[in-house]
């Protein structure tokens, strides 16, 4: 693979994956009402909320889970998107009462001692779900330095067995963070920690170093993936894997990487 191909492969994302506050709210609500009682299905139910127009027939009991999502009805997402402060304040208040219990880094290390029970308890999707997705594996990088719980939640949301995931744990990250991510990765054949770790300073070239470190590893490990998507541990998908694949198929090999000098103009 030459360098051009590198650039070719970097990306595609921006229009498909974003961190949108509102979605995080919805997600927090959904986990809150389910947490630890029925972690399984959280992903499905949350997608049901985000994509009410998508049919979820392939998820066995999503509607039953959805029934438990009552708190979501209390939030008007349209208003949140419009930046309505009253609605935001109301949502913040609600959030306080629905905070899901986090899982500590040490707990993750403990939980992943038994991978089977970890995957089951956390509700990972261990099937490609559709043949379209199976034939179109994606590669992801995830840059993170803290909050294993959130990073694991992201991984859980985007995890599919046909894809491949490179996690770049910042070199300055706490020991427990690295250990927890390493033990989580050890439960999957297609999730690994980047072989070269950088001290990433946001907005500097080190971000690219970290992504490139992952891309190099991804190219070495599997050559079958079709597109590369770079993420950070703080993001959350607005599209299902199936939707990503459908979007990327229409790209037909093209990139979605911003080229331009707006940043330089800005500063
Ligand atoms: C669906 O969920 C309901 C309520 O959570 C439960 O009682 C029922 O057994 C579930 N059905 C299946 C097929 O899992
Ligand atoms: C929202 O809450 C903040 C602080 O809690 C307050 O200063 C602000 O006035 C509130 N805004 C509205 C529109 O209620
Ligand atoms: C790990 O889990 C076991 C059993 O679930 C528990 O007894 C032990 O205290 C845990 N260890 C830590 C460090 O949390
Ligand atoms: C992904 O990489 C592109 C190109 O380096 C960059 O513009 C974008 O900000 C990156 N996205 C994330 C989430 O790091």
Automatic annotation (TrEMBL):
GO cellular component: membrane
Main localization, broad class: membrane
InterPro entries named among the record's database cross-references: Glyco_trans_14
GO molecular function ontology, one term from the record: acetylglucosaminyltransferase activity
Topology versus the membrane: Single-pass type II membrane protein
Pathway(s) it belongs to: Protein modification; protein glycosylation
Listed transmembrane segments: 7-28
Compartments, as annotated in UniProt: Membrane
Sorted UniProt keywords: Glycoprotein, Glycosyltransferase, Membrane, Signal-anchor, Transferase, Transmembrane, Transmembrane helix
Family the entry assigns: Belongs to the glycosyltransferase 14 family.
Protein name in the entry: Uncharacterized protein
Organism of derivation: Potamilus streckersoni
């Amino acid at each position: 693979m030459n360098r051009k191909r590198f650039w070719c492969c970097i990306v595609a994302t921006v229009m498909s994956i974003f961190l949108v506050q509102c979605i995080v709210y919805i997600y927090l609500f959904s986990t809150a009402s389910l947490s630890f009682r029925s972690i399984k299905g959280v992903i499905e139910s949350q997608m049901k909320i985000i994509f009410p127009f998508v049919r979820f027939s392939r998820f066995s009991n999503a509607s039953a889970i959805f029934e438990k999502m009552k708190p979501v009805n209390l939030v008007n997402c349209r208003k949140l998107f419009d930046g309505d402060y009253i609605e935001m304040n109301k949502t913040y208040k609600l959030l306080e009462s629905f905070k899901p219990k986090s899982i500590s880094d040490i707990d993750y290390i403990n939980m992943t001692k038994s991978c089977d029970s970890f995957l089951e308890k956390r509700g990972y999707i261990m099937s490609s779900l559709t043949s379209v997705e199976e034939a179109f594996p994606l590669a992801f990088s995830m840059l993170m330095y803290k909050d294993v719980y959130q990073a694991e939640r992201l991984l859980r949301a985007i995890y599919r067995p046909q894809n491949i995931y490179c996690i770049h744990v910042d070199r300055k990250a706490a020991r427990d963070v690295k250990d927890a991510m390493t033990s989580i990765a050890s439960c999957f054949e297609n999730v690994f920690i980047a072989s070269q770790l950088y001290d990433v300073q946001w907005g500097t070239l080190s971000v690219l170093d970290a992504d490139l470190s992952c891309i190099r590893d991804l190219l070495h490990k599997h050559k079958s993936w079709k597109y590369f998507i770079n993420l950070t541990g703080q993001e959350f998908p607005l599209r299902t894997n199936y939707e990503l694949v459908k979007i990327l198929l229409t790209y037909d090999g093209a990139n979605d990487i911003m080229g331009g000098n707006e940043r330089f103009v800005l500063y």
